[in-house]
Every structure is written in C-alpha cells, then in structure tokens.
Specification:
The chain is α/β, with parallel strands linked by helices and 488 residues long. Helices cover 31% and strands 25% of the residues. The protein is built from 15 helices and 24 strands. Helix 11 (352-363) packs parallel to helix 12 (382-395), helix 12 crosses helix 13 (411-422) and helix 14 packs across helix 15 (474-484). The longest helix is centred in the N-terminal third of the chain and has 14 residues, at 114-127.
C-alpha cells in the first residue's frame, strides 16, 4: 500500500523524505522489521521503539513514524507525530482497508461484567442469525477459530487485523471488551463504535504502570462514549452520570433501582436440582420475563446490558429469553453438573474483592454450606493471600486451601500465608496442596445443599510451576474425580 494512503487520517507534525512510496508491512516490533516496511516507534513502559531505529533501518525498513527526532539516511522517510500510538491505530485501520466500517461494532467497558456480557450478546446475536465475532479477556473468536487473549483489548494493529479476518469469515457483527488501558493507549482509536455499553465502575487498575488515580481511570472509560454512535448505560451505578458527561452519542439506560428505559423488577432466586440462577421481569422498551442459570444480581445487570443492546437489532424477545437461559461463560460463575444434591461452580475470583462479592451473592441462596477451594499465585502480593483467606473464613463454612500458580515460590509457603488470613476469622479450613486432591475432597465430603466454589483459576487451563506451564483444566479434574468416585 502507498505510504500516503496509510497516513490519510494521521495528524502529522512534519515529514522528511519521499511520501509516495510502496509499503510492504506495518511493524511496531523491531524483531519483525523487513524490507520495505513502515516501523512505528512506540514508547512502552519498559522499551522505547526509538532506540531500535538504526537496527530496523539495517533490516530494510524504508519509513518511520516517530515522536522524537531521529538521525537516518535520506532514503528513509520520517513522519513525525504527537502520538505514535494514535498514529498506529489510524495506519492499521487503513492498512486493513477499514474493516470496522464493514461490521456492526459493539464495545463494552466497565470494571466488572464485560466478559459475561460479551458472551451473552454474541450468543443471542448468533441465535438470531447474525454471525458475530468476539474479542475479550479470555479469547478472540472468529468463526470456528479461538485465539487465546494476551490483553483484554489487543493493540490497534492486531485489533484491525482481527476485524479484517472477521469480515473475511463472513461476520456482520463484533462484540468486544474495551479496557481503560485500551482506551488510554489508543488501541481502539481509528474507528467509531456503533454501540458503547457501560456496566459499572469501581476503583481498579490504579498504579504506577496503569492509571495514576481513580479520576484518570474514569476519564479513560468516558472516552468510549465520545467514540460511539449509541451509548447504553447502567443508570444504577453511582458513576453513571459522570460517565455520560461529555458523551457525543445518544443515550439508552437500564437498571433495577432507578428510572430507566429498560428496567428489571420482580427479581427472584432460582435454586433447584443443583442449579442456581435468577429470574426477573423487564419493562419499558422490552416487556418480558427472563431466567438465567447464573446466580446473583450482577447476572440481572449483565442480562439487562445485553437485552438493551439487542433490541436495536429487532431480535425477538423469545430468542433472547431462550439463549439467556443457557448462556455460560467459561470460568465466570460456571456451573458444572455434578449432583442434584449439591452445586459445584468454577469462578475466576482471584482477589479479595471478587471473592467477597461472589460469596455474598451465593449466601443469598441459603446453601447448606459454602465450601471454597482456592490458592493464590506465587511471586505476587502476600496481602492478597491474607485478604482472600480472611474473606473466605468469614463468609464460607469450609475453606480448602490448595495450590494455584506457585510460579517460583514453594506452594506450602503460599498456603501458609493464606492460612494466616483464614485464622483471623472463625471458618473451618483444611490444607491440601494438590489441587485435584483438594477438589476430590470437596466432592467426596459434600453434603446435601452445599455450594462448592473452585475459585481463582476460572478459564485458565494451566498451572505455572518454576517457569513452566503444565496442563491443568479444573473441568477435566472434576471429570476425573467423578470417575474415580463412580459418580458419572
């Protein structure tokens, strides 16, 4: 593609060299530099792409996009911009021939609920006959292809490449998680979303390499609603009004407690035959009854976000109801059929906040006992271990402390830290280092009405020990345990 064409939407400060040249590839990783390539110098948290200019030019790169001045031969074109990340987003969109314009794009932002809501929307759209791609924390889905995720929101080049592959695969829609980092670092710049969804906001991702404070976190989340045509907001969230400030989109609201365009009421818990969920009525722009086999009020909010989006595509409420009833997201309050006498679920809760939220939700179902099975990651904060142990001891009846990803620490040392927290409250506990044995103990000793929660691993299918990732999928472990106990 001609360099001029790639730069048609880039805000350029200055240029030197020939602009009407053919570009063979767009690169921001010096290791991928090649003859005739365009190299974009990105300033990362650890590495600055400007330091690789000499190296990539030696490999044949003929054009550079930079923020800082560089010294290169006259035959190398240099395009100076204020922000190379923003430039990369526009260049990537042009390189793949603006694929987002050929899709209906749906972006979801918020602290919690993004992953589940994306799967809900994708499942319902496909149930209504729309071939839909998905990009999120767990994976990217393009037709039958599943690509494990490195980031919740991919870099702009990868994102545009995924969009192009979706168009080629015959997708008409794409639903994706939009992280605050993705917005801040221009990963989703270069196109306009058709729909933007706000789920909720709590302090998160605040630190030296993320957001400097909560105000910055909120400001970055707001950016989605200056980059979409239609905004859909959870009006019950305490930050909803702030999120709407400066929005350039039209606004649709959903909620349980406040006046909303789409409102849920008559919420009731469902608990039968080892399955727990929630039922509710919806009124306003949709009037129907829905039931979801995922517990908790947050399931109502996730469902409302999906319903509020899907009415824009004239999807029959009967299809929405049918699909919502059976939607399950890997590792997100994922119910595993084991017995009609007790419930077993897998969830990604891997910090005190998420574990407390989950256990509080489960307690509403008045189980016989709540049994948690979890560990904590090695080479990570000890504080997380103490907090998770204490929360579990306070809110669960039995805590089974086991191993997660010990990394380069000894599993027993991590478990001892968790037990220190457990002992701050009154809950019973047992320590079983081998995770499969811990799961087996929970099932073998389950009582009628118990709810067993395997926490921390969620969608992960590995265990990291001494720098090596070993295959370990809790679904497989549960299956093996059931076979050993003759419970299949």
């Amino acid at each position: 593609m001609l360099l001029n064409k790639l730069l048609e939407h880039v805000d350029i400060v200055s240029t030197t060299g020939e602009m009407n040249k053919e570009i063979t590839s767009v690169i921001n990783d010096s290791r991928k530099a090649c003859e005739g390539g365009l190299f974009i110098c990105i300033k990362g948290a650890v590495v600055d792409g400007h330091t690789f200019v000499e190296q990539v030019v030696e490999k044949g790169v003929t054009a550079l996009v930079v923020e800082d001045d560089v010294n290169v031969s006259e035959d190398v074109t240099v395009i100076k911009v204020k922000d190379t990340r923003l430039a990369m987003a526009h260049i990537s969109a042009a390189y793949f021939d603006y694929p987002a314009e050929k899709l209906t794009t749906i972006g979801i932002t918020g602290t919690k609920g993004k992953t589940t809501t994306t799967y809900m929307i994708k499942s319902i759209l496909e149930g209504a006959g729309f071939k839909t791609g998905l990009i999120g924390t767990i994976e990217t889905i393009i037709g039958d292809k599943h690509i494990p995720a490195a980031n919740t929101t991919p870099e702009s080049y990868n994102l545009q490449e995924y969009f192009a592959q979706m168009v080629e695969a015959g997708c008409t829609h794409v639903v994706m998680e939009v992280s605050s980092q993705g917005l801040m670092l221009h990963r989703v710049s270069g196109f306009t979303f058709d729909y933007g969804i706000f789920t909720n906001l709590e302090p998160d991702h605040i630190g030296p390499n993320e957001h400097k404070d909560f105000d910055d976190y909120l400001r970055c989340k707001q950016l989605l609603f200056k980059q979409c045509k239609h905004g859909i907001f959870n009006v019950d969230d305490s930050h909803a009004k702030q999120m709407m400030e400066g929005a350039t989109c039209d606004i649709l609201t959903y909620g349980l407690e406040n006046d909303a365009d789409i409102k849920a009421d008559n919420v009731s818990l469902v608990n039968k035959d080892g399955v727990i969920g929630i039922a509710f009525d919806v009124s306003g722009k949709v009037n129907d009854h829905f039931e979801v086999d995922v517990p908790g009020k947050f399931s109502v909010y996730n469902s409302l976000a999906a319903i509020s989006t899907l009415i824009n595509f004239d999807v029959d409420p009967a299809i929405i109801s049918k699909v919502l009833k059976k939607v399950h997201v890997k590792g997100r309050v994922e119910l595993i059929p084991v017995s009609k006498d007790f419930t077993l679920m897998i969830d990604y809760a891997h910090n005190a906040m998420s574990l407390e939220s989950l256990l509080t939700t489960i307690r509403e179902y008045e189980p016989g006992r709540i049994v948690t099975v979890f560990g904590c990651g090695g080479n990570r904060s000890k504080l997380r271990r103490y907090e998770m142990g204490e929360i579990s001891s306070k809110l669960a009846d039995l805590t089974i402390v086991t191993s997660d990803n010990p990394r380069f620490e000894e599993p027993q040392d991590i478990m001892n830290d968790i037990i220190t927290g457990v002992k701050k409250a009154d809950g019973e506990y047992i320590a079983i280092e081998n995770r499969k044995d811990a799961i087996k103990y929970s099932i073998e000793h389950a009582k009628k009405g118990d709810i067993i929660i395997l926490a921390g691993k969620g969608h992960e299918t590995y265990q990291e020990i001494k720098g090596v990732k070993h295959d370990m999928d809790e679904r497989v472990l549960v299956k093996e345990v059931l076979e050993e106990l003759n419970m299949n």
